Amino acid sequence: xxxxxxxxxxxxxxxxxxxxxxxxxxxxxxxxxxxxxxxxxxxxxxxxxxxxxxxxxxxxxxxxxxxxxxxxxxxxxxxxxxxxxxxxxxxxxxxxxxxxxxxxxxxxxxxxxxxxxxxxxxxxxxxxxxxxxxxxxxxxxxxxxxxxxxxxxxxxxxxxxxxxxxxxxxxxxxxxxxxxxxxxxxxxxxxxxxxxxxxxxxxxxxxxxxxxxxxxxxxxxxxxxxxxxxxxxxxxxxxxxxxxxxxxxxxxxxxxxxxxxxxxxxxxxxxxxxxxxxxxxxxxxxxxxxxxxxxxxx
Length: 298
Hints:
The chain is mostly helical and 298 residues long. The protein has helices at 2-15, 17-41, 45-48, 53-74, 84-91, 97-134, 143-154, 160-175, 181-198, 204-207, 209-232, 237-259, 262-287.
C-alpha cells in the first residue's frame, strides 16, 4: 500500500514538474517585490504604529503565504481531470479514490507550500545581497519574520471578539474625545497596544493548548474550505475560495462577538466546519469523472 502511494506521488511530481517550476518562479518574483515594498513601508513606521521591520514583513506575509501559497494551489484539486489526456491517465492510476484524493491534497498543501517557501528564502537572500551592494537600506533578513508569523498563526494571542472590542474602543475614544494632543496620543497608544498584542510572540507554555487548538483549527478550516471550492467549482475555483474567505471571516467574527465562544469554542466550531468541508470535497472528487464547461461539479 505504501509503495503504491509513493508511486502515485512520483507520477504526480513528474506530471506537474513544469508547473512546480513556474510556481517557484512566481514565488521568487512576487516575494522579491513584496520585500522591497516592505522596506519602503519601513520608512513610514510612525504611521503604521510598528517599530520593527519584522512586524511589517509579517503583515505582508499574511497575504503572500496564506493567500497565494494556500488559497490558489489548494483549489487545483481537480486539475488532473480537466485536460482529457491527464484525466484518462489519472483515472487509470491503480489506486482508490481515497488514495488519489489524499495524494492530491498532500501535493497541493505540502509540496506547493514548500516550493513557495524556498522561493521566498531565495528572494530574501537576493534582497540582502542587493542591499549590501547598493547600501540603499540596512541589510536585514526577512526569513525570521516568516517564522515569527507562523508562530503567531498557530499560537494566536487574540480571538476575533477581542480584536473587535479593541477596535470599537478605539473608535469610541476617537468619537467622544476632543482632538487634543493628549487625546491623539491616547488613541495612538490604544491602537499600538492592539497591534502589539496581535503581533505578540508566545511559546506554547505561555499561550496554552486552547490557543494552539484554535490556531490549528483556523489553518485546517482554511485548507478544507479551499479544497471544497476546488472540488465544487470547475471554472476559476480560486476566485470562489477568495470570496468564501471574505464571507466566512466576518461571519466568524460576528459569531464570536455575539456568543463569546472563546478560543476553545471557536476551535471546536472550525474543526467541525472543516470536517464537513473535507467530507464534501472528497465526495465530489470521488463522483466527478467527467469535466465539462458547467460552473458546478454537482
